């Protein structure tokens, strides 16, 4: 059975964060609010938990799971290096709706799917998500919906799709307009936007010092 915690109430929020942290450490799945859409998350370093996440969504390893972090500094331990372009984007847009794809650190023992040696990283701008991430460390987090269905903008919508495959639902209220994060690939010499979303091309281009059209 899954449990829903109303994070608008301080007592319920505290209990929910504790329950979610325990669930993640035990290899379970949790649903958490973010600044884009609701996410379904697991311990990024627990391959069985990540496999359970993919199964709950009804998708395979061909679509790797992104990783959410609770601080800028966490990134340094997860990637091979942090180029200047990545630093500039992190300083400009994190926490927020920008995901950055970089070569992962070769020493990491995780299985996020068919990543081809890369990792998709983001720091969300949501206090509940940040509190959980700072408690448990990096989490593999994907949108809280079954594959092929609309992303969830409320905990209720997430539960309708995912049910008891998730141990804990953290209800942070409506996420607003469900806009996915923008994804920027920095694994090559030329930055490239893989998905347009919450952060606009012009804003990215200003920070990177490039023409917006070159990012497409």
Automatic annotation (TrEMBL):
Alphabetized Gene3D superfamilies for the sequence: DHBP synthase
Catalyzed chemical reaction(s): L-threonine + hydrogencarbonate + ATP = L-threonylcarbamoyladenylate + diphosphate + H2O
Transmembrane spans: none
Coiled-coil spans in chain: none
Location within or outside the cell: Cytoplasm
Alphabetical list of SUPFAM superfamilies matching this protein: YrdC/RibB (SSF55821)
GO annotation, cellular component aspect: cytoplasm
EC class: transferase
Molecular function GO terms recorded: ATP binding; double-stranded RNA binding; L-threonylcarbamoyladenylate synthase; tRNA binding
Keyword field: ATP-binding, Cytoplasm, Nucleotide-binding, Nucleotidyltransferase, Transferase, tRNA processing
One record GO biological process: tRNA processing
EC number: 2.7.7.87
InterPro entries: DHBP_synth_RibB-like_a/b_dom, Sua5-like_dom, TC-AMP_synthase_SUA5
PANTHER family registered for this protein in UniProt: SUA5, THREONYLCARBAMOYL-AMP SYNTHASE
Similarity annotation: Belongs to the SUA5 family.
Protein name: L-threonylcarbamoyladenylate synthase
Record lineage: Bacteria, Bacillati, Actinomycetota, Actinomycetes, Pseudonocardiales
